[in-house]
Structures are given as structure tokens and as C-alpha cells.
Amino acid sequence: MELTELKYQTAQLIDDVLQQAAVKKGQIFVLGLSSSEVNGGVIGHKSSAEIGQIIVKVIYDKVSEIGAYLAVQGCEHLNRALLVERELAEARRLEIVSVIPQLHAGGSGQVAAYGLFQDPVEVEHITAQAGLDIGDTAIGMHIKHVQIPFRPKLRELGGAHVTALKSRPKLIGGPRASYQATDVFREEKK
To answer: What CATH number is attached to the domain comprising 99?
Structure first.
């Protein structure tokens, strides 16, 4: 895939996903990325630092623009730990772990984010509101319950399958419960 086209398609993809997931200021957005899959290979076997840099830069800029935080998931060699800004880790009291991502231990996305972030740290667990999975990297463990998978308009990026997750609060209360505010409730609040 031509790198200029990759940058353009990544921008289209992230704009669509951020809109559909309704990501807001202060929320966490997880990115799972297999540059191997984007590159037409099999996950973990054809990593590309250049592809990782292009994709992560575009997504980082778009997520930062709305005031949200980007968390970049690493590969299974780092137990799918996430690279985040220290500010986020400290504010949310996330346990920081010691590792510096490499191309084949963390992946191209984490290596790219490590160069972009102001003060990057790794954390093992996070609860994000939404995320984007480029190349079937399995980000679901980092999205809060209840997860809602959705399909972006662009379903592939290079050779990689693309899916996204958003979340909503749990529905509780059983058959008597109502899940949408009614006009009566709104009138009572006035």
C-alpha cells in the first residue's frame, strides 16, 4: 500500500470511528495495530516501523484533538500491555510496569507511540470507552463493559481487517426498568 494512501485512509477511518463511538474529552481510546496485517502479512511476522509511525501519528493527532487519551496495545510478548502518557497513568492510578517496546516485542504501534508521547509508560490494564482494532489484535479486554462492536465504513486498512468497539453503561433493573429518559422525567427536573 502506498504510504500517502495509508495516511489518507487512516484519517478517514479514525474520523468515522471517533464519531460513531462518540469519544469525548478525557476518555480513553485504545488502538490495537498489526502493521504486519496492514502490510499484507500475518500478524507478528512482517512488522513495519514506517507503517506503525504513519498510522499512530494520524490517530494520535485526531484523538488528542478532541482531548481524549490514546492507549496503544502491545503484542502478546508484552501481555498486551498498553503504552499511555504518564499523566493518564497517574491520574487514573494505573499500575506502571517496566518495559520499553521494541518492534518485535510490543509492536510497531507501541514503538511509534513511544516516540510521540510526552512521557510514555506501560500499564498492564486499562478500561477504555472505545477502541480501534486494525488487524485482529483483540482489544476487547481493554474496553469497559458493555462492549458494542461496530463496523467502520472502511473495513480494511491495507491488508488488515478493521473492527471497532464502543461501550455503554450496563442496563440494570429488570422488566420494570426504563432505559431512556422520558418527557415526564425531563419535565420534573425543570
So the answer is: 3.40.50.10360
Q: Which three cell numbers stand for residue 78?
A: 508484552
The 3-state secondary structure of 59-107 reads: HHHHHHHCCCEEEEECCHHHCCCEEEEHHHHHHCCCCEECCCCECCEEC
Q: Quick check: 160 and 9 in contact, CB under 8 A? A: no
Nearest residue to 34 via CA among 132, 116, 168: 132
Question: Which of 39, 34, 28 lies closest to 56, judged by CA?
Answer: 34
pTM of the model: 0.88
**Domain count within the chain:** 1
pLDDT in tens, 85-125: 999 999 999 999 999 999 888 899 999 999 999 999 999 99
Q: What is the C-alpha end-to-end distance of the chain, expressed in Å? A: 56
**121 is written with which cell numbers?**
509508560
Q: In terms of DSSP H, where are the helices of the chain?
A: 3-21, 35-38, 49-65, 86-91, 108-116, 183-189
- 115: helix, coil or strand? helix
The residue range of the domain holding 93 is 3-189
